[in-house]
Design a protein that fits this description.
The protein has 1 helix and 23 strands. The protein has one helix at residues 319-325, and strands at residues 2-14, 17-43, 46-67, 72-95, 100-111, 116-128, 133-144, 154-157, 162-165, 173-185, 190-207, 230-250, 253-267, 273-275, 282-295, 298-309, 313-314, 338-339, 343-355, 360-368, 376-382, 387-392, 397-405. The strands form 4 sheets. It has a 17-stranded antiparallel sheet that branches. Strands 8-9 form a two-stranded antiparallel ribbon. 12% of the residues are buried.
């Protein structure tokens, strides 16, 4: 698997020169993966599963940005080489009684980048209350690497004009997961599932010079932040409740409803609890559709999907500081205190499918964001007008589709 990105960003006017480059970057990644798994039935009530996964990444990470202080490009990352990630796991499933089943296992992670080994125990229990319902509970320790390019971020020392990689020895982020739920299947076509969870996150990379910052918010925008001097002293917590109501496709129609209410917090280097960038507090999804058999092998379908979610958290623009500096300055003291208006979107799809003996053809009309609801993605500062402007998520978008299924 290979992924390559090369890009250059330009500013409109710098030092009275038009279209002067302010950012240059190249990211290239080739992934090779090997995995193997063994399954063994020990007895009628017990079996074991074990396996290994080996990943090799051949990477190139190079990017630099213009420093107005030094009036030249300053390197952010400059790396080329190979990285390794190895995982091993073993799981024992034992039926303790006619109703109670236990799964116990261990997951072992080795990150060649920083030569860290992380043993992760896992345990799950399932209790069958009846032929249609069951309770389940589980615990697990999970570890995670940061985006690979972050480990190669350079720190520039202007006094000596040298660079150092201050994130190379950054450790794995960890999380303890606790979950419990109930599942009830009324018949072959309809089920309800509820689940409550709690996650304690620790060893999260944060930064002394930016005490509000935490890598726990990575993914809020398109790219991982290129922040240097990270240390594993941050924490976080997630708590939530989820509900799923599902009717499988039967007699021409199906329906899926999911609801999630949650709270997501983190602490940076200053140990102050704040909302994470993803703490929208609630998400509701409704999906449904109907199919008509018009004639032999010809099917007309209508599908509707609606999403309603709490608004995106953001760091507001500091208007006074931005005006004084002539460029955008964020109010980090109020990081993620506020949310934009709720996100809402409805998609409608009308499809026509013809099933042949060996292939199928499908024509479809997708009406995305049917109501053209304007959901804010981000806000930025315009120094020329001294005002904040909004960037919106995708509006109404009709699309035509044709597919051949072999």
């Amino acid at each position: 698997l290979q992924q390559t990105n090369t890009h250059t960003l330009f500013d409109s006017v710098i030092n009275n020169e038009w279209f002067k480059p302010v950012y240059r970057g190249e990211q290239r990644e080739i992934k090779a993966s090997f995995s193997s798994q063994l399954r063994h039935r020990v007895s009628s009530s017990a079996h074991i599963v074990a396996g290994v996964v080996f990943d090799r990444f051949d990477v190139v990470f190079r990017d630099s940005v213009v420093s107005r202080t030094h009036d030249r490009f300053i390197t952010i990352t400059d790396a080329e080489g190979s990285l390794y990630l190895m995982r091993g796991y073993a799981q024992w499933q034992q039926r303790l009684s006619s109703r109670l089943t236990a799964n116990a296992g261990i997951h072992l992670l080795y990150a060649g980048l920083n030569r860290e080994v992380s043993p992760e125990p896992r345990l799950a229990l399932s209790y069958q209350t009846s032929s249609k319902g069951s309770f389940n509970a589980g615990f697990g320790l999970h570890s995670q690497l940061q985006p690979r390019e972050v480990y190669f971020t350079e720190t520039y020392h202007s006094e000596t004009d040298i660079y150092t990689r201050s994130n190379e020895k950054m450790g794995l982020s960890k999380s303890n997961h606790i979950v419990a739920g109930y599942h009830h299947r009324f018949n072959n076509h309809f089920r309800i599932k509820t689940e409550a969870y709690y996650q304690h996150l620790y060893n999260i990379p944060v930064r002394r010079r930016s005490p509000e910052f935490s890598m726990i918010n990575t993914g809020d925008f398109f790219n991982a932040p290129k922040i240097d001097s990270l240390i594993n002293e941050g924490t976080g917590r997630n708590i939530g409740l989820e509900l799923t109501v599902e009717r499988f496709l039967h007699q021409g129609w199906y329906m899926l409803f999911t609801a999630s209410v949650f709270d997501s917090k983190y602490r940076g280097y200053d140990q102050v609890w704040r909302n994470t960038a993803f703490n929208g507090n609630y998400v509701f999804n409704l999906l449904g559709g109907y199919e008509w058999n018009l004639a032999r092998n010809r099917i007309l379908g209508v599908n509707v999907r609606t999403v309603w979610a709490g608004g995106k958290r953001y760091i507001p623009v500091d208007m006074e500081a931005s005006l004084a500096k002539g460029e955008e300055v964020r109010d980090w003291d109020n990081s993620f205190n506020k949310r934009y208006n709720d996100y809402f979107r409805t998609d409608l799809r009308i499809s026509f499918r013809v099933n042949h003996k060996r292939v199928s053809q499908e024509w479809a009309l997708d009406l995305q964001n049917l109501t053209n609801h304007r959901s804010i993605f981000m806000e930025s500062y315009d120094p020329a007008l001294n005002e904040v402007y909004q960037v919106y998520q995708q509006g109404f978008m009709p699309m035509m589709l044709y597919r051949i299924y072999f």
